[in-house]
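User: Structure please.
Assistant: Input sequence and predicted structure:
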Amino acid sequence: MLKRIIIFIGICIGIYVFFGAILFFRQREFVYYPTTRDFEKCAGFKDAEKLHVNGTRAYFKYNSDTLAVFYHGNAGSACGRTYIKKMIEDAGHSFLIVEYAGYSNDNKKPREELLLQDVRNMVEFIKGKNFKKVLLIGESIGGSLAAFHAVEDSYDRMLLISPFDTLGSVAQDAFPLYPARMLVMENYNNIELLQGKENVWIMHGTEDEIIKIDRSKKLYKTINGKNNRYIEIDGAGHNDIFEFQQAIKIVNQFLQKDDTTKATTRK
């Protein structure tokens, strides 16, 4: 009987270690879900300029001297975000919808280092223009890229949709039996990036099962900046938040808000 118990425990440990190894060595496959959609042939952005800035691609259209920059979530592609394009244009703003390395028929493998470089390239592009206002919008993991953009350059206000505090915390929520927080190689830490940032709006669905709402609540409490807002979208999950009229209303308010003061001085 003792031998059987020892064998059983050994098998359980082996299974635990085996799946833990899979999670560790293939973790980027759990973080990024790009599609192979053709960036150049996106019908929804046929009226936009297809930018290639130092290897970073983006859809750009000038409509006014206010620019809204959108960083999408970890799944799909920039081409699939025509809903935000319409909202930005309805508000009368120019748009910059950023695509990531490894997405939309790009042959690279997406990883944090490459995505942060995409942000830097977009910052350099914007600095070469004369926009009076820059609005940042980040969705899910794109919230980390919007936050990094805010570190690299000034902005006027920022909207984070379903963001997290740290990616390690999200991983720990998803895999509670493993020390996932310690094993995460992609170091997206929004608490550090957003410390002291102002005019930050955070919107999150109460029924989000992918990134729990507690993650963004913790983030909001630790920012310690002025003129920040936190909005819960009752009943919304992670992927259906734009099916809720309250969420659409908040985004429109964010885009149409007439600031009398700015979070930072435009450079």
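Residues 259-267 have pLDDT under 50 and may be disordered.
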